[in-house]
Write a structure and sequence with these properties.
The protein has helices spanning 4-27, 31-39, 52-71. It is mostly helical.
Length: 133
């Protein structure tokens, strides 16, 4: 199976060559007519504004592109109809929670470990020590 980029490159190359040949056919061999048709094509040209021969060439190129892609093993169709197949993950995905969701570990169990209590240095920090004016 060819890479998708190679298939698309081949399709686009063929489409451009066929469109140029269609422009030649539309001009009926008259260079000035072909030049005028070529100069009328720009980025915002609508499909309906193209010469009939070029429209037919594009329609044939689209059909050919779909056939070529499916022949190479690529699925072509509406997004809802073509479901991409993902390889099975070795580790199943965990549900991801955004901010504001409760922690999935739940509440802490047992007594709290670590520093805490009322020993020396365990009181509030800053300010004056108690008992001194």
């Amino acid at each position: 199976m060819k890479a998708a980029a190679d298939v698309v490159r081949s399709i686009l190359f063929s489409a451009v060559i066929e469109a140029i040949e269609a422009l030649r056919t539309a001009s009926r061999g008259l260079p000035n007519t072909m030049l005028r048709d070529l100069q009328s094509i720009h980025r915002n040209t609508a499909f309906e504004d193209l010469p009939k021969e070029v429209q037919d060439s594009i329609a044939a190129g689209v059909r050919s592109a779909f056939n070529e892609l499916s022949k190479e093993g690529y699925a072509v169709g509406p997004r809802a109809a073509v479901q991409p197949s993902r390889p099975m993950d070795r580790v199943p995905e965990r549900p991801r929670h955004g901010p504001g969701h409760p922690d999935r570990r739940g509440p802490p169990r047992g007594p709290r470990r670590g520093p805490g209590g009322n020993g020396p240095g365990k009181g509030p920090r800053g300010g004056r020590p108690p008992g001194k004016p």
